[in-house]
Amino acid sequence: MSPARLVAYDVLRDVEDRDAYANLALPARIRDARLDGRDAALATELVSGALRWRGRYDRIIELAADREASRIDSRTLNVLRLGAHQLLAMRTADHAAVNESVELQRRVGNPAAAGFVNGVLRAIGRASNEDWDDRIAASADGADERLAAQASHPGWVLRALRDALRAEGREAELGELLAADNASPRVSLALLPGADIDAEAAEALSSDVERAEAVLTATGPSPLGLELAGGDPARAIAALDLPRGVARVQDQGSQLAALALSRAREPRAGERWLDLCAGPGGKTAVLAAEAALAGSELRANEVSEHRAELVRRSVEAHADEVEVVSHDGRDDEAYGGAQARFDRILVDAPCSGLGALRRRPEARWRKRPSDLPELTSLQGELLDAAVAHLAPGGLLAYVTCSPHLAETRVAVDRLLRRHPDLRELDARAVLQRVARIPLDLAGDRLSAQLWPHRDGTDAMFVSLIERPA
Ligand SMILES: C[S@@+](CC[C@H](N)C(=O)[O-])C[C@H]1O[C@@H](n2cnc3c(N)ncnc32)[C@H](O)[C@@H]1O
């Protein structure tokens, strides 16, 4: 029995039974099973493939088994998903994929269903991906159901993504976006400003890193950004030999969102900045470095004490300069009192996370449209509280890692209606100025929406709002 397949199966169960995050459960299981590098890579591919493509594979399994997925025992279904991934997306020989799956079923599932697993997987292996696409199309109830199954996205997510693209006049890009969600992104690093080294110099240094099979390139839209072409990010960071916390794993869209606030305009001396929803602290780290350069003070707030601790760790490069507190961002304590005012506030609000589906393969199946109303009210309340603490002339950045219109444009339009004294600034122009390369920002609104398929970033939304002096 292949240990990598057993580990992959166990992680699928962790995700299902314990609501575990695959990216946390997988390394732990790999360690416990003492998998070598090759088996660890195989387990990783199996887990991310089976989770990401779950919608597609379940439809194919239903067609091959002539039975609804909901009527297949969940242990057997996971064995079939892993088998389907080997047959349809990996180079595993068909007989090996089928035999290993039957063995796995005997070991972890109902042995009496081993014949069923054998039959279903043989049927899946007999047809190509193109054939399965045709069969999915022929059995689908409408174009959305077809695309949702083929591209493995829940229907409501697909419609939300299409609405967001349509608002920019780019509905035709939906297929590219879904494909980008289904591809494993490269790891990006941020090299915090103020270090003695910039991204280009770090790339040059990566000749040392190259020997460690972890090649860094100064590519991507963030001026702080490095991309890892392969290998272990921790080794790449260690090989740069920089002070702790200066090089950090971070999506380049997140880097740009933080820079949009700090670089929207020249800071005056002694400004006060606040990161209201800071955990786990990725953007706080960028803001801390920017604040240190600008001579600004930074306060970071995070409602969860555990995540506030992560924020403290994230600013270790500027530990004494950032005040980290833990309160509900709707309460005055988060700001240090009712009278406290800030010159710049980042509201990186809790959101559905639909912009980062490519990084968390299980996330799309966990979100529910019913999560939205609670999130959008919280976003509105956090924004109202932040606005109340914005100094005259102050700047607020509203950021989400979701392109869902209810969390992005609609939230900003509502905020501006509630507070007619506020003025929206041209976030698109700011991002164009800050970015290392020209960004393809579509639509005719002042806010900016980044996209994985266009910008190579998570789908971050950024709006900049000013309280006129
Ligand atoms: C999108 S995440 C922020 C990501 C972070 N800015 C970064 O770049 O690492 C939103 C954060 O808001 C926190 N949060 C949720 N409700 C909150 C509230 N009422 N007040 C303050 N923070 C809250 C969540 O715990 C979560 O850590």
Structure write-up:
This protein has 469 residues and is of the alpha/beta class. It has 21 helices and twelve strands. The protein has helices at 3-18, 22-32, 37-52, 54-65, 74-89, 94-108, 114-126, 129-139, 143-150, 155-167, 174-181, 199-211, 233-240, 252-262, 282-294, 305-314, 363-366, 372-388, 409-418, 427-434, 452-455, and strands at residues 187-191, 216-217, 225-228, 247-249, 272-275, 297-301, 322-325, 342-348, 390-400, 423-425, 448-449, 461-466. Helix 6 runs antiparallel to helix 7. The model has no long low-confidence stretch (mean pLDDT 95). S-adenosylmethionine binds next to helix 15. InterPro entries: MeTrfase_RsmB-F_NOP2_cat (IPR049560), MeTrfase_RsmB-F_NOP2_dom (IPR001678), NusB-like_sf (IPR035926), NusB_RsmB_TIM44 (IPR006027), RCMT (IPR023267), RsmB/NOL1/NOP2-like_CS (IPR018314), SAM-dependent_MTases_sf (IPR029063). S-adenosyl-L-methionine binds at residues 277-283, 302, 328, 348.
Shape: globular
Ligands (ions, cofactors included): S-adenosylmethionine
Look at the structure and give the mean pLDDT: 95
Quote the distance from N terminus to C terminus.
69 Å
> In percent, how much strand structure appears in the residues?
5-15%
State the secondary-structure class: alpha/beta
Instruction: Tell me how many strands there are.
Output: 12
Radius of gyration, CA atoms, in whole angstroms: 24 Å
Separate helix tally: 21
Report the sheet with the most strands, covering strand number, pairing sense and barrel closure: 8 strands, mixed
Low-confidence stretches: none
Q: Which bin fits the share of residues in helices?
A: 40-55%
